[in-house]
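Exercise 7. Given the encoded structure of a 429-residue chain, write a plausible sequence.
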């Protein structure tokens, strides 16, 4: 892999690495000029933190190393893949061998990983259409029915690529699966993986394979594809396609020129980073005695403004009244969608059931940017009335959907749609 073909050269990664280099230059200037020491006294302890930051930045280079080792075997790095998984897989390969590393990687595609990965499908219309079948594939996979889940996933992937790109299927000769500033869609990623998966399998074979060769499996030429490694690689490819589709939705198919930051902008960015760190240091989760107003029935004035529990109560009230536009605006994945589009999708997802009543029961502040709000609610649909206890995941985010410390101004609480899955997909088997 040449330097020009590294994932580390993607704009977002290169920008972070560049900011660290810029911070090093700022530190040197600060040391050299007393006037800067007077203007920015808080930089006095910056050197030690900068060393730590440089060490941590090495994690940004993991996707390149991962693809270098594993892409030829059918694994690629993608945005939603855990960096810790990448790191451990690389270490396992270096200490042991490829077989041990592949066994580890396959083991990470367990029930929790699949549940989380599939939950992200709700944020994309084309993926959402296929959730029912994907859930069936998950059931087969967890029951070790690899002969059933692998062909189903391969066929769904092909149709998804066609619908997402509005062009051709995933495995077509002229499929273009690249996008700028995207790990999954880097030329060392999906494009290389699909080239491997579509290799010709001219002869019928009864020998076990370790790569999900699409043509051989779907055309009945590979007769021993039904194993855990092949199935796990197929899931990994599916989740990578979701990240590629997300990049296209964000307009990353073509490169948008970006101006280099000025020294003034770098200083402002550094100051903002320092302030964010200060707020993170002072933040503390609320204690039980801080929630004297719980349990709380409905949308009560006693719920604090700009709190996660207040956002959940407003969301439930909007659902109760059938106000799908503000309801949609409260969901974390809709931050960059047009109002008409997200309101329509919210009505489709949430309109089948009506909220009869609800109660905010408990709140757990898990991180500076995330809380879990427990609610009990009664729902109705036609003649069916039922109760559910839901743990609603709420995140504090900026206008681009990125997490923020809740002590910072300018953010808003947003809810994860999958928190309501047991209700909105109640009859989906």
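Solution.
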């Amino acid at each position: 892999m040449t330097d020009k073909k590294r994932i580390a050269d993607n704009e977002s990664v290169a920008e972070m690495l560049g900011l660290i280099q810029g911070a090093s230059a700022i530190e040197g200037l600060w040391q050299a000029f007393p006037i800067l020491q007077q203007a920015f006294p808080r930089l006095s302890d910056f050197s030690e933190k900068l060393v730590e930051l440089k060490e941590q930045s090495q994690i940004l280079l993991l996707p390149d190393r991962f693809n270098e080792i594993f892409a030829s075997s059918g694994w690629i790095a993608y945005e939603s893949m855990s960096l810790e998984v990448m790191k451990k897989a690389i270490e396992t390969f270096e200490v042991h061998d490829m077989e041990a590393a592949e066994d580890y990687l396959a083991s990470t595609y367990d029930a929790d990983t699949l549940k989380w990965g599939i939950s992200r499908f709700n944020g994309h219309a084309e993926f959402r259409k296929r959730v029912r079948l994907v859930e069936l594939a998950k059931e087969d996979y967890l029951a070790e029915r690899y002969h059933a889940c692998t062909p189903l996933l391969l066929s769904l992937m092909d149709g998804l690529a066609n619908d997402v790109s509005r062009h051709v299927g995933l495995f077509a000769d002229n499929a273009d699966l690249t996008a700028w500033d995207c790990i999954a869609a880097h030329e060392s990623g999906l494009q290389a993986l699909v080239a491997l998966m579509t290799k010709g399998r001219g002869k019928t074979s009864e020998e076990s394979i370790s790569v999900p060769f699409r043509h051989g499996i779907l055309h009945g030429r590979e007769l021993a594809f039904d194993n855990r490694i092949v199935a796990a690689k197929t899931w990994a490819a599916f989740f990578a396609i979701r990240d590629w589709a997300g990049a296209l939705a964000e307009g990353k198919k073509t490169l948008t020129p970006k101006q280099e930051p000025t020294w003034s902008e770098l200083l402002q960015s550094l100051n903002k980073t320092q302030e964010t760190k200060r707020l993170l240091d002072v933040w503390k989760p609320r204690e039980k005695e801080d929630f004297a107003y719980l349990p709380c029935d409905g949308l009560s004035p006693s719920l604090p403004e700009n709190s996660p529990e207040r956002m959940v109560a407003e969301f439930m009230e909007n659902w109760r009244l059938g106000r799908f536009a503000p309801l949609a605006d409260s969901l974390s994945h809709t931050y960059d969608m047009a109002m008409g589009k997200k309101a329509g999708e919210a009505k489709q997802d949430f309109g089948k059931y009506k909220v009869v009543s609800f109660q905010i029961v408990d709140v757990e502040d898990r991180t500076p940017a995330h809380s879990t709000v427990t609610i009990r609610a009664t729902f109705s649909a036609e003649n069916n009335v039922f109760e559910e206890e839901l743990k609603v995941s709420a995140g504090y985010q900026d206008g681009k959907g990125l997490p923020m410390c809740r002590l910072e101004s300018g953010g808003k609480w947003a809810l994860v749609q999958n928190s309501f899955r047991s209700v909105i997909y109640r009859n989906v088997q």
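Remark. The two ends are 44 Å apart (CA to CA). Students should compare their own answers with the one above.
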